[in-house]
Amino acid sequence: MDLKTFKLLHPVKYYKDYLENNIRPDGRELEELRPLAISFDVIKSADGSAIVKVGNTTVVCGIKAELATPNALAPGHGFLVPNVDLSPVSSPSYRPGPPCDEAQVYSQSVADAISNARCIDLQQLCISPGKLVWCLYCDLVCLDHDGCVLDAAIIALVAAFHTVNLPTIQYNSDTEETEADISRLLPLTVDCVPVTTSFVMVAGRLIADPTTEEEKLASTTLTVTVSDGKMSFFNQSGGDPMDSRTLKKCTDSAIKRERSVKKMIQTMQRKSSS
Which positions fall inside the Exoribonuclease phosphorolytic domain (predicted)? Predict the structure, then answer.
C-alpha cells in the first residue's frame, strides 16, 4: 500500500506515526506556527481593509462605514458588524448561497473576541446621541481555507481597523440633514490588538495552528485570544480535558503571536506616517 492510500484509509494512524516523533506531515514541530503575512489598504473602495495569510489560509477584510440610527438602549454607541464569508473558491466543502452554519459561528466568534477585548470603543462612532452614529460593516471573506480561519479573520479585522479613516460629519438635529467633510478624516482609535491562536488535540497530542486536515482529525479544539499580553477570550469544544500546564502552554504561544502581530501593525503605521 502506498503512502497516499494509507493516509486516505487510516488518517489518524498516519498522523499518529508522525506525532510520536514530535513532527507533523508538513514538517512543522507540534507547537510551531505557520508564517504570517499582513497587507494593508488592499481595497481602495473600502473605508478600511487588510488581507492576512496564515500558511495557506487567506482572509481579506473590507470595512464599509455607513450612517445609522443608534439603538435606543445605547444612544451614544455606534455599531460594529462583522460577517465571515466562506467563499466557494476557498474549499470544495462550500457552495454558493446563504452563509453556512460554520460561517455564522465564525462571525459570532469574531464579534465576541473583539467585544471582550474592548478593541473598539463604540462611543467614538457616535455623531449625535440618539440621532446618528456610524455603523462599520466588516466583511471578512476566506479566499483559501487551510485551517484556522478564525485566527486569520480576527487578525485581518484588527489590521483593517488601523486603516479606517472616517469623514467629519456635520449634523443638523432640526432638519436631520448631514454633510460630510472628506477633507477632515478622523482615524479610528484602536485600543488594543486582540490576536487569536487555535490549538487542537490529535491522537492525544497538542497541535498549534492546525491545518484543515488536522482540524478534521481533532478530538478537541481550543482558541485563545490575547490582548495586551492577557487572555481576553477563550473557547473550547470537544471532550478532551485540558490541564493547567497545557492551558499555560497555549496561552504563552498566543502571547508570542500577539506581540508579533502588534509589531507588524506598528511597523505599518510608522511607514504610513513617514
Answer: 32-167, 192-256
Is the pLDDT score of 197 beyond 70? Answer: yes
> Closest Cα partner for 156 from 192, 110, 221?
110
CA-closest candidate to residue 113, choices 138, 135, 92, 132: 138
Q: Round to whole Å and give the CA distance between 50 and 192.
A: 17
Q: What is the pLDDT, as a whole number, of residue 251?
A: 92
* 3 state SS of 131: coil
CATH number listed for the domain at residues 28-273: 3.30.230.70
The reported pLDDT for the residue numbered 242 is: 76
**What is the Cα–Cα distance from 36 to 197, expressed in whole angstroms?**
12
Phi-psi region of 119 (alpha: psi -120 to 50; beta: other; left: phi over 0): alpha
Sign of the C-alpha dihedral computed for residues 215, 222, 34 and 54 taken in this order: positive
Task: Give the separation between CA 198 and CA 236, rounded to whole angstroms.
Answer: 10
Q: If you search the block for the grid coordinates 466568534, which residue do you land on?
A: 109
What integer pLDDT is reported at residue 104 of this predicted model? 94
Can you give the pLDDT at residue 14? Answer: 72
247: helix, coil or strand?
helix
Output 22-26 pairs: Cβ under 8 A, ≥24 positions apart: 24/207, 24/214, 25/213, 26/211
